[in-house]
Write a structure and sequence with these properties.
201 residues; alpha/beta; Zincin-like; 3-stranded mixed sheet; 6 helices; 7 strands; binds zinc ion
């Protein structure tokens, strides 16, 4: 489910946090930390929800190259942080809401999946800047932690939107009929998201 704001977030799953690698990268880009990821094929840079920079080091990569890579992207990092600083959520808010999302959203997703006789293989809570949620062919549903800052009925619509993708991975008329049957207020919810979604970034 697209939010309509292009934003670079290059992610890698199940990383090994490498806190032992104390970052010498001083100044503009701090705070920064490095993780090694065996499956990563290139260096990746991400600005976390709290403004920290995370650099992923691929297999065979080095700390020194990772540092140089980060330095080459200082401008990008500062732009991403500027976007974060315009967010209505402080770093504390984000930390609290993410914890709340982790506690509430998977539970609610499974409840709604049960109601509609669907099975979800995996649920992840993500810091997506461009989507409220996503659903993979393999039944893996990702939900944006910002859902917990929405009214319950809008949150439920987003969850149902992703759940119905377990039946159809498109946005065809047939797909929207499934959504309408499961969530009669879906048009109101979409309107709410268009009107208020941008405030949640
Ligand atoms: Zn969709």
């Amino acid at each position: 489910m697209q939010l309509g704001l292009p934003f670079g977030e290059a992610g890698a799953r199940a990383p090994v946090v490498d806190d032992a690698l104390a970052p010498p990268t001083a100044g503009a880009i701090a705070p920064i930390y490095f993780v090694r990821h065996r499956r990563a094929r290139r260096y990746l840079l991400r600005v976390e929800y709290d403004g920290r920079v995370r650099v992923t080091i691929p297999r065979g990569g080095s700390r020194r190259e990772a540092d140089a890579f980060a330095q080459r992207h200082v401008e990008w990092v500062l732009r991403q942080r500027a976007v974060l600083s315009r967010s209505r959520f402080s770093a504390d808010d984000r930390r609290r809401l993410r914890a709340q999302a982790q506690a509430e959203l998977p539970k609610r997703l499974r409840e709604l999946a049960d109601t509609h006789g669907l099975s979800v293989t995996r649920v992840s809570i993500r810091n997506q800047r461009t989507r409220w949620g996503s659903c993979g062919r393999d039944g893996h549903v990702c939900l944006n932690w910002r859902l917990v800052a929405m009214p319950q009925w809008v949150r439920d619509y987003v969850i149902i939107h992703e759940l119905m993708h377990l039946k159809r991975l498109d946005h065809s008329a047939a797909y929207w009929r499934l959504v309408a049957a499961a969530c009669p207020r879906y048009r109101d919810a979409r309107q709410w998201l268009r009107a208020h979604g941008p405030e949640l970034r």
